[in-house]
Structures are given as C-alpha cells and as structure tokens.
Design brief:
The chain is built from five helices and five strands. By secondary structure, the chain is an alpha/beta fold.
Length: 151
C-alpha cells in the first residue's frame, strides 16, 4: 500500500508543472509548432457573406501566426452556395483571394457544384483551381493528415 501511495504522489509531482502552466494567468502562450509542415484545408459552402468574410479572415490569421510562418500549406475548397466567392460578377473578394493565393493558398472550386448549378469556368476568376468534388477533396486531404476546418 505504501508503494502505491508513493507512486501516486510521484505521478502527481510529475504533472504538477504542466498543470501549473495552464492554470496560472498569463503563463500559457499557445502550443509550440514543433513540426516542419502543417496543412489545413478550409471548406466553405454557404453564400452567407459574413461566413465568407470570417473564413477569409481565419485563413489570413493562420498565415500571419508567427508559429506557422514558412510551415503552412493551405487550401480553400468552395462548393454549394459559396460559389459566389469565385465568381467574376461578385468581384468584392477578388483582391483578397489574389492576396491569399500569392501567399500560397490553393483556391479550389468543386466541379460537381459547377455542373449542378450550370456554372462555366469563364464565369469564375482565372486564378481558381478545380477539384472533381469538394467532398472527395476533403476526404483525401483529411486522410493525408490535413486539418479540415469549417468556419
């Protein structure tokens, strides 16, 4: 019994520093980026402009995170109602999208959505890439270890 009590006390002492780090105000500064690469794919399927703006801001925030500088691969997969994001007749997002692409973000459009909604490539910005299906892209990326993020 004494040995069990000793082992329990020893275990508590070994986790105490970790517990203190997260419970003391101002001592935790976020997770440490220890890997050489991080990968995230954002999925967007709504025409709600506040959700679209939020998603674009989230992507930029991740790109600006100093822990992830030069370590981040990103993709934005658009399908369903979110197709307005890539449309030439809705140019309010064009500059922001071009800025994201210049920072390495892959801008992908679902060809299945295009077929269903009768959208032609000529209606979309010329810098957009295409995937056969958004769901297929998300499944593949997740199985390849990418974080799948839905804003």
């Amino acid at each position: 019994m004494k040995r069990l009590t000793y082992l329990f006390a020893l275990a508590l002492l070994s986790i105490a520093p970790a517990m203190a780090q997260t419970s003391e105000t101002g001592t935790f500064h976020g997770a440490e980026a220890t890997k050489s690469r991080y990968r995230a794919v954002y999925q967007l399927n709504t025409a709600d402009t506040s959700v679209i703006s939020h998603a674009l801001a989230n992507i930029q925030n991740a790109l600006n995170d100093p822990r992830l500088k030069e370590k981040l691969d990103m993709e934005l997969v658009v399908y369903g109602g979110a197709n307005i994001l890539y449309r030439k007749d809705k140019p309010q997002y064009e500059k922001q999208l071009q800025d994201l692409q210049k920072q390495g973000v892959i801008l992908a459009m679902c060809e299945n959505t295009m077929r269903m909604r009768k959208i032609k490539r000529e209606e979309l910005f010329p810098f957009v890439s295409y995937v056969p299906t958004a769901n297929g892209e998300l499944i593949i990326r997740q199985e390849d270890g990418w974080a799948v993020i839905r804003p």
